[in-house]
Design brief:
The chain is of the alpha/beta class and 433 residues long. The protein is built from 17 helices and 13 strands. The strands form two sheets. A seven-stranded parallel β-sheet has the order 3-2-1-4-5-6-7. Strands 10-9-8-11-12-13 form a six-stranded parallel β-sheet, with helices on both faces. Helix 14 links the parallel strand 11 and strand 12. The chain is globular and about 70 Å long.
């Protein structure tokens, strides 16, 4: 006979009203876990400093969900007074190369060497103390820590030491030391070693390490983790509101980027290609629109001023999740970008799954043989390019434009249901057994 409903404690920093893709993974798992025999409780900070807010996500928080909170002290409020760029660092964005002022350099050095693994580390001790008491009074079958911020995994380490029989799942939405900006943190040798030692300890102590990409899971296993890949996905509930049938055409041939775009993932090759097509083809210049829905780095916006492309840009700024879904649906081509380094081939940006659910074609940039390419090939949902394939990118965009001009729709993506949040939660429930 099946045992009674099991209980899982989810420890997360990001939770509505926080915006951005990092919130949605465990928000959606919490939404669907009860259907698979698990009752979630969520532990979050009471007074967090979120880089983005999106109140529309609050409607996805289940009414019956128990949420517990404790206060957090973060140095970011102080740091933002020193330099407004620190708001970007909080979200994992950096000025790079010549764009770094001395204040940026100092802020990055302090962040990397004083706050290990990150600036939310001051929540670790009080949270561990609070949760040790909480878990000694209430029975739970499993506990999840999700990072970044990776300091939350240190809470998991403390709880696992106190309750060795408690199943601990360390969820890595992004890698820790292998993420591309880790090398931009200006770490001393001893700080770098401390990051790596802590990461190793988490990998070897957690019962399960979850990765969001196939490559990350493989890399984590090489480093001693019992790693399994459960990707992010799209929510069928949400996607039905924007999966508009193909006959609804757009007035302009619209290429859209939805989300945050920072300098380290800036596809300059694409802007040059678009500028060339606009210069060479008046019809394309009249028909084309490049749309941004999200936060675009000021340096990238400044760069557009030197191009003819600037006349085709529509910058909508940050939108709520619901409105962002609608903008995806009102596009012909959807852009996704990744860091160019080979070490980033395992990053699968969460929005690709919502892109898939629109049925629109996807233009992706990143390193060769990226996990994103595997998903696009398997679902026939678009093309992935590295940052050197200029002529191929140009051909792809122009062919998409000609299809749009003639009213011909591209093939709809296939096999996408495996990436629905509900199916992914079913996989998670099997992993938790």
């Amino acid at each position: 006979m099946e045992s009674a409903i099991k209980k899982i404690l989810i420890i997360t920093y990001y939770w509505p009203p926080a915006g951005g893709p990092g919130v949605q993974r465990w928000l959606k798992f919490a939404k669907y876990l009860p259907e698979f025999g698990w009752k979630p409780t969520v532990f979050i900070p009471e007074n967090p400093s979120y880089p983005l807010l999106d109140e529309s996500l609050e409607k996805d928080v289940p009414k019956e969900l128990e949420i517990i909170k404790t206060k957090i002290w973060e140095p970011y409020q102080l740091a933002e007074k020193l330099n407004k760029s620190n708001k970007k660092f909080k979200a994992g964005q950096f000025d790079v190369g010549q764009n770094q002022s001395w204040k940026s350099k100092l802020s990055i050095w302090v962040r990397g060497n004083f706050f290990i693994p990150d600036a939310r580390v001051f929540w670790v001790k009080p949270s561990t103390k609070y949760l040790k008491k909480y878990l000694s009074e209430k029975h739970f079958d499993a506990v999840v820590t999700t990072g970044p911020p990776h300091s939350l995994h240190l809470i998991g380490l403390g709880l696992k030491k106190e309750f060795p029989g408690l199943k601990w799942i360390a969820d890595f939405r992004d890698p820790w030391t292998e993420i591309s900006y880790h090398k931009h943190l200006k770490l001393t040798k001893s700080s770098d070693k401390k990051h790596r030692d802590l990461e190793q300890k988490v990998f070897k102590t957690a019962d399960i390490t979850l990765a969001t990409s196939f490559t990350d899971a493989e890399n984590f296993r090489k480093n001693g983790a019992n790693a399994i890949c459960i990707t992010n996905g799209f929510d069928s509930d949400a996607s039905t509101t924007f999966n508009i049938p193909g006959e609804y055409g757009t007035e302009k041939f619209t290429l859209s980027y939805v989300g945050v775009l920072e300098q380290l993932r800036n596809p300059e090759i694409l802007w040059k290609v678009l500028d060339e097509i606009i210069t060479e083809n008046d019809g394309f210049a009249n028909d084309f629109e490049l749309k941004f829905a999200g936060r675009i780095d000021d340096r990238i916006l400044d760069y557009f001023n030197s191009l003819k492309l600037k006349n085709s840009i529509k910058n909508l700024g940050y939108l709520s999740h619901d409105k962002a879904l609608q903008e995806m649906a009102n596009s012909d081509l959807l852009l996704i970008t990744n860091f160019p380094q080979e070490s980033s081939k395992g990053i699968i940006p969460g929005k690709i799954f919502e892109y898939l659910a629109t049925g629109k074609q996807i233009l992706s940039f990143g390193p060769k043989d990226a996990d994103v390419a595997k998903i696009l090939n398997e679902t026939h949902a678009g093309k992935h390019f590295d940052y050197s394939e200029k002529e191929k990118v140009k051909d792809f965009i122009f062919n998409q434009y000609l299809n749009w001009k003639s009213g011909k729709t591209s093939d709809n993506p296939s096999s996408i249901e495996q990436y629905s949040r509900k199916n992914l939660t079913k996989t998670l429930s099997q992993v938790l057994k």
